[in-house]
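REQUEST ID: PR-0412
SUBMITTED BY: lab tech R.K.
PRIORITY: routine
TASK: structure prediction, single protein chain
INPUT:
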Amino acid sequence: MICDERVAFESELDAYYATCPNDVSDIQQNLERIADVHPEWSSWQLKEHVYETVSTRCPVVVFRHFPFYYELGVGKPRTNLGEGGVGNFLKSRPVGQRLLAAGREWWGPCGSAALSVGWLVLDDNHHSLGNDNVFRYGLSGLLARARERLDSVEHPDQRAFLRCMCAGLESQIALTTRFADAAEQELVDERDPAIRERLTRIADVARRVPAHPPATFYEGLAAILFMRETTQALEGNGISILGHIDRMLGPLYEADLAAGRITRGEAVDLLSFFLAMSDVRFGIRDATHHVGTNTTIMIGGCTANGEPVFNEVTRMVVEVYRQHRIVDPKLNARISANHPPEYFDLLSDLSISGCKSISLFNDDVVIPANVKMGKAERDCRLYAGGGCQENVLENTEINSRATIYLNLLAVFLNGFFPEKLAFLAKRDGAELADYADIEEFEAFYSAFLDNLHAVLLAHIAFRNRAERQGAEYNPCPLHSATIDDCFANARGIMEGGARYSNGSISLTGVGTLIDSLYAIRKAVYEEPIVSLSAMRNILADDFRDEEPLRQYLVNRVPKYGQDDAGIREFSSRVFADLARVSRGHANGRGGIYEASLFAFRSFTNFGEATGATPDGRRAGEHLSPGMSPSPLAFGGQTGITDVLSALEPIDLTDYPVVSVLDAKLPTLSAADRTVMNAIMRGFIDNGGSVMQLNLVDQAVLIDARQHPERHRDLVVRISGYSAYFTTLPGNIQDEVIERTVLQG
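STATUS: complete
OUTPUT:
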C-alpha cells in the first residue's frame, strides 16, 4: 500500500463520513411502526424484520481506493464500536429501556462509592465470530445447516430461533449481491485501470464470498472483514476480534503462491489495506476516538492439534506493522517455548522499532488456564485476545468479559469504614464485616475475603437477572450461526447456546491490595508499630502528620514484586485466594464466572476516588494496573528481571480470562534484540500470562505533554489499547509518564 493510495482512501472515507451517520430516521420509524402494529411478535420475529430491513434498505458503499467491501450505512457514527445503528433497534425497545433504568439505579451507588462500574446484559463487544466455520461452510452452508435443523425440532422457541437464524443468513447473503452490484455501478464511469481492476475483483468475489467458503488469500481477507462489519451492523453488537489470521490465511496464501495467483508483494499490499482500515476509519490520528476501537488480530500460537503457527503470513503481518506503524488493530502475539527463535526475533525487532500495539500471550499458561475450567484442550488452543487482552475461544465461546470492573481496595477499606458500602446490606443483603477489634491477622484476612465474596455475589446476582433477559433484549441468531453447538442446542448465544458461555468480574488493584494486606500483617500484627484503630484514623486523615510512618510503610515493608521470601509467598497466596473466591459462580446463561485481573483504565479512575491505603499510598493516587506491582514497590525504576521473577511463585493458570503484566521499558536499539528476547523468554519461563510492552523515553513523554505539536506521531500503550499520546486526556498522559520504568 503506497502512501498516496492510503491518503486517497483516507480522503474518501472523510468525504463519506462528512455526512454520516446516514439519515436512517425513516427506517427507524418504520421499524417502530411495525413493532407497534404487531405487539404479539416475539423478539425473534422483530429481529427477522430488522435483518430484512437492514439488508434491503440501508445503503452499501464500495470505496474506489480500498480493495475490500464492508461499509454498511446503518446510521451509526464513525467512531462507533459496532453496537449502534439500525441493528441496535431491539435494545431501544421497552425491555432494553427497563434494563437501562434498572442498571443506572443499581450501578449509581456503586460508582459513587468507587466500588464498581458495569454494563447491561452480555458484553456488547469483545467477541469473536466463528470464522473457521465461515471458512468451512460459507454462509450458504450455514444456511443449509440451519434449515436442516429447523426441520428436526418442534419446540416453538427453538423453531423461532432457527427461523430467525435463517432470515439473518439470507439477509447477509443478499448483502454480498448488493456489494457486487455497487462495484459494478462504480465501474460504469471509472476510467483508471488500477481502480477498474480493483472494482472488477470486488464485483466478482462479492457474488461468491462469503456465501461460499473463501478459496484464495484475497477472498479470505474479504470474508473476515465482510463478516465482522456486517454482523456487527445486523446484530447491533461489537465483534472486536478480526481473528487468528496467520493460522487461517497461511494455507490460502501458500496455495495461491504455488498456483501463481499471487506474489508476496501483492499479499503484503492486501494486508496493508486490511490492517490500516481500522486506523483510518476510526480517525485514530485525529483523536476522534482516542480510546481505540477494541479491534484486535492474533498471530502465532498453535493449531487445534497443537502445532505451532509461524508462517509467511506471520512474517508479513509483522512487516506491515513495522512499515506502516499501525496503531489499531492491536496486535496480539501468542508465544510459547515451542516457537522458533526467528519468531522471537521478529517480535523483538517490532517492539524495538517503536510499535506500541503489541501484547504477548503465553500459550504455556493461557491454554492450561482454560483447560483447568473444564474446556476441551482442542478448543482452548484456538483462543484469541478480544478487545484489549481478555481472551475468548474462537468458534466455541461467547463470554462476558469487560462488563464488571470491581475495585478491590474499596472492598478492603470498607472493613475500616463500613459506612462506605452500607447500601449493599440494605439493597442486596450483603452483610460486610467490620475490622474493629480483630486480634489476629488470619481473622483480618478472612474477614476481607468474606467481604469480597459477599460483594461479588451481590454483583453476580444483579448481573444474572439481566443476562437471563438477553434473548428478549437483543437476540443474535446470525452471530450464533457461526458458533459451535448453537445448531445442536437450537439456542442462541444470548441464552447460553454456545459450547462455553462464561463471564468474569475484572478485579482492579491486586498489587496495591497485596501491599496493603502485608502492611497490616507486618505493622499491626507482627511488629507491631501501630494499632488497628490507629491505622483507621491515619487512613481517614490521609497520613496527615504521619509522614515518618508513611515512609516506613513505603520503604521498610516488603511489597509485591520485590525479592523478599515473605512477600513472594504471601503474594502467591493472595492470587490463589482471589481466584478461588471469584470463580465458579453460575452466570445467567448456563456458564460460570472465571477469574480475571484486568483493569482497562479503572485503576486510574478508581484510584482517583479511593482513600489512602496501608501500603503508604495517598488518597487519589492510582492503583496498580492489571496484575502488575504497585508503583510504590519500586519507586521510579527497577530491573525487569525483578518483575518477571515476581511471577514465578504465582499460579496464573488460575486466571483464564486475563492476567496482564504492564511493562514499561526504556527505548532500545536494534543491537538490543537479545535483551528483548531474554525478556520474552523470562516471561514464559516464570509463568507469565499476558504482557503488554511500552518502550518509551520518559523525557520524550514529558516534552510531548508540554509541546504536543512536536510529537504528533508518538504512540503509547495504555491498559488494553494503544493511542497517539497527544490525543489522550491529561490524567492518562500523567499515568503513562509516572508509570514505573523497568530497566533492562
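NOTES: The longest strand covers residues 658-665.
REVIEWED BY: pending
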